[in-house]
Amino acid sequence: MNAPAQARSALARVFAIGWNYRGLFLLSLGISALSGAVLGYLLLVIDRLVRSWAAVQSSLDRGGSASQNELEHARSLMGGTVWELIALAPIAALMAYLSIYCGLRLANACMRDLRQRFVVHLVELDLGFHARAAKGDLMARMMADLDGVRGMIQRLFGRILTKPPEILALIGYIWYLSWIMGAAALILLIPLTLVLGRIIGRTKRRSRKAREALALNLVTFEQITSGIRVIKAMGSGEREDQRFSTSNDDLYRRQMRVAHTKAQSEAVTNGSVFILFALLLWLAGWLFAQGLAEPASLIAVIAALGRITAVLRELQKGITDLVSQIPAAERMFAILDTPPNLHDDPALPPCPKPQTAITFKKVHFSYDPNDETVLRGIDLEIPVGKTLALVGASGGGKSTLLDLIPRLHDPTNGWVLWDGVDIRGYRPSTVVGHCAIVQQDPFLFDDTVYNNISYGRPEASREEIETAARRANIHDDILRLEGGKGYDTPVGDRGSRLSGGQRQRVVIARALLRDAPVLLLDEPTSALDATSETHVQAALAELMRGRTTIIVAHRLATVRHADRICVLGGKDDGEWRGQLMESGTHDELLARGKAYARLVAQQHLG
Fold first, then answer.
1. What is the CATH number of the domain that holds 387?
2. Going along 42-112, which residue ranges are E strands?
C-alpha cells in the first residue's frame, strides 16, 4: 500500500473508531449547526438595527427631524435586541460547554477502548514477536502514538467535522443578504484550500519521520533505565549520555521540520485572511457604489465574514494537527494488524493432563523464516512423572525446546504430542494451564509478596498461600522482611526489595500453589550464590516431587540425578547445533566418554 493510500486507510479507521460513539458526534454536530444559526440570527439583528437607525439618520440629514414613530421603532428594536442577547447568553454558554465536553468525552472513550484493545492484543501476540520488539518502541506506541490518535479523534469529531455546518450556515446568511458576496467568498476560498493542501501533505511526511525518531529516542531511554546497573558498573555514563544526545538531537531536528511546516500553514492562513478580507471589502465598496447593496447588508456580511475567517483558522489548525498525527495512527495499527501465531480458539477442546508421555517427533523450529533453524529434527519422549535434564553449550535451543511444551511457540515442522495427541489440536490456554514455569530470571510484579504468590492461583486461600511458601522454604524470610508487614510487604519493581534467592523462592511458591502436573525449570539456580542455591535447591526438590519435570541447566551437579539427561548441540558444536547429540543417565553418559563426559570434565565433577 502506497503512502497516500495508507494515510487514507489510517484516517478511515480512526473515523470508524470514533463512529462507535456517533451519538456524541451527532450531538456535537447539532450544537455546531445551532451555533451557526444563532450567529446568523445575530447577523439579521445587525441588519435590522442598522436599517432602523439609518432611517432616523436619513431624516435628520434631509434637514428635518425624525418622526416619532421612527424613533420609537429604533429604540424599541434596540431594547428588544438587548434582551434577546441576554436571553441567548446562557444558551451560547451551554453550547460552548457541550461542544467541548462531547468532543473530549468521545476522544477519552475511544482511548479507553483502544488502550484495552492494544494491551489485550499485545498479550495475545507470541513470544517471538516480543523477542523482536523493543520495549521502548512498544512504550512509544502505547503512550505517544495512542495519545496522537486521541488528538486525531478529538480534532476530527470535535472540530473538523463539526465546523463545516457552521461555515455553511454563515455562507447561507451571506447569500441571503447578498448572493454576489456569498459567491465571491466561496470562489476566494478555493486557492486557499489548494495551497493549504500542499503544505498539509508535507506536514504528514515530516511527521512520520519525527514519530519514528521519537520511538527511537524512547527505545534508547528505556535501555538506559533498564541497564542502569551495568552502566554504573562499567563507568559508561558519558558514553550513554552521548548516545542519548545523538538520538535526542535527531528527534529535535525532525520535530523542528514539522514545526516549520505547521508555521507555514499558519502563515498562509493568516495572510490569506487579510487578502480575503481586502478583496471582499473592495467588492462590497463596488457593490455599494453601483447601488447593488445597502450599508446594513454590507455590515452584516462583513461581520459574518469575520466569523467565517475565525472558523477557517480553527479548521486549518485542526486539519494540520490531524495530518501530523496520522503516522501515530499508522504505527498503532501496525501492531494491531500483527496476527498472533497462536489463537485461543474456544471451539478447540481443552487439553487433558498428560497420562503417559510428552513426545517430540521430528521437531524443527526457527523464530523467523529468514533466521537460522534453532532446533533440527528433535525426537524425544518424556515419560510422565520422570525428570528430564537438557544440557549442552549455549545456543543449542534448550530454552526454546522448553517453550514448545506449554505451546508458547509452535514447531516450524514436526509435532509435540501429549499422550500421542498433537497439542495444536487443543486450546493453547488449557495446555499452558497444566504447566508451571520457573525461569532463571524470576519476574515479580510491583505488588505485595502475597499477591505475587497468589498469581499462580488467584482463588487460593491465605492458608494455601502460606503452605506453598513454607514448602518453598520462604515463609520465615517473608515474616522477617523489613517493615514487619510480612506477606503484605511490597516487593518493589521486579522484586528489587528481595534478594535473588528470595525472589526465586517466591516464584517457586507461586509454582507450588499452581500445582500443575508438568514442571519446566529454565536454569533456576544459575544466578545464585552458594547459600541461596542451597535454599532454592531444597525448594525445588519439594516442587519436583511427583511431577513431570524438564529442567535446563548448565550446572551439571544440579541434574546428575535426573532420570534422563539429553545433550543438545550448541553454537560451538558445528553440524550438531540444535540437534540431540546423546541421551541417557549420568553414569551411562559418563561411560560413553563423549559430549556429556567432556562437559563434566570441564566442570570438574566426579
1. 3.40.50.300
2. none
